Amino acid sequence: MEHLEAYAAKLMEQAKLPGAFIGFAKDGETVFAKGLGFGDVESQTEITLDTVFGIGSITKSFTCVAIMLLQEAGKLSVTDPVSDYLPEFRTADEALTRRITIGNLMSHTAGLPSLPSLYYAMRRSMEIDPAVKEMPSSIDLTAHEPIDTYGELMDFIASLDVKLLGEPGTEFSYSNDGYALLGAIIERVSGQSYESYVKEHLLDPAGMTNTVFLIEDLENQPNIATLYTSKKGENGKEVFAAPIWWDAPAMRAAGFLKSTGRDMLAYAEIFRTGGLVGETRILTKESVEQMIGNYAGLEPGRHYGYGFMVTPDFRGGTLVEHGGAIKGVAAQMCIVPEQGITCVVLTNLDGAPSTELLGATLNTAQALPVEEPIMSYAESPVSADSLQEYVGQFGSGEGEKLEITADEAGLSLTVLGTTFALRPVGTDSFVFQTPTGLEKWIRFNRDGEGKVNRVAFHFRQLLKLTEEA
């Protein structure tokens, strides 16, 4: 394990990451569980299996478990139209909207583009957080009143006159709004709040005693990681404590759980065993299989299920994974059920190299070199004449913006002031390499006339903002 610890220490130093929990288990038995750095730098608080971190969008799989439980109880079906339960949910195309199913929301294939809703849903907690002033954002929080309820969220979406990306089930674009709507469905069908349903039917039966939506709900738990974020300083990246937890009551189903290494390794057992945590059955085997089904292609050999990204042919098994990120949070979880492997990485700094740490942890669990690439992409030449087709600026409603430029060396992508060279790996598909060596995939989309109109980046479809140069 010394190679894993040394590699993690190197990554943490490069990223100025205050603290991390790294753990993996084999066949339900913990093999490695280590706290690195500190939960709180000032007080030098050690990180343990029971240190509480945010898990961000890993919450989405919990939401999908709740939906599957309601389906098992005969109270809904993932094939049901969303409008059966949320008749006030509206977009610009009424007919298309009526065809959106619960499963489309779970697989991010409803056709919803990225919207700024999450920021307005977090507005109350963000406005009392001094750290916000140090963080760059293209979203003006004052442009809309806080969104506090599911009703207000649906009214906001309706007010935007949202144009869907395509026929439901055909276009993948990661949507926090879609998952918030799942929370609303769970509440209406179960007759109790989303949070209480998840606690009663998932967290409590699984023994996840330190997993909560609100830090205040933790009793006698002194070991809570302090949140950190960063800003650009005179000498480069400056990391500073930002202890206020952001919250969004109308969108908790999209990413606001807090948990521990111990609890998350227990949760991962559901997907390793086909529904069990210890002797307690949480889901049927059929529900687990349905959750890792193929509902949307992400990139070659990888798809999205219900709350998980899945690589079916991965080193002799199936890689089931998801990450989470929000201020002070970068978390990852994966399972390779055929090999009995579960891995969890939790950190207390947004932008931390949690994906790289998870890769190293998984490699160690599989007895491979820590820096072995998790994904690899073969070169696929593209003609120089076609490069101009991709040039332009692209953006999303969540504030993400990027620019594609071309020169004699090829295409480049610029995001948040950093430029990356793009390497062609398939039709309209490219990868770029991060400073840690991780390769990330992007794909351009064309309209009916064959012109590039969107780019899939960071799992969202960003719309083209300018014409070709």
Strand order of the largest sheet: 18-17-16-15-23-22-21-20-19
The major beta sheet can be summarized as:
9 strands, antiparallel
The termini sit apart by: 51 Å
**Assembly of the depicted chains:** single chain
How many structural domains in the coordinates? 2
Description of the structure:
It is built from 12 helices and 23 strands. The chain folds into 2 domains: 375 residues, Beta-lactamase; 81 residues, Lipocalin, CATH 2.40.128. The model has no long low-confidence stretch (mean pLDDT 96). The protein is globular, with a radius of gyration of 21 Å. Helix 1 packs antiparallel against helix 12 and helix 2 packs across helix 9. Strand 4 and strand 5 form a beta hairpin. The protein has a 9-stranded antiparallel beta sheet with strand order 18-17-16-15-23-22-21-20-19, with no helix packed on it. An 8-stranded antiparallel beta sheet has the order 2-1-14-13-12-11-10-9, with helices on both faces. It has a two-stranded antiparallel sheet with strand order 3-6. The protein has 469 residues and is an alpha+beta fold. Keywords: Hydrolase. One of its GO terms (molecular function) is hydrolase activity. It comes from Brevibacillus fluminis. Pfam families: Beta-lactamase, DUF3471. This is Serine hydrolase.
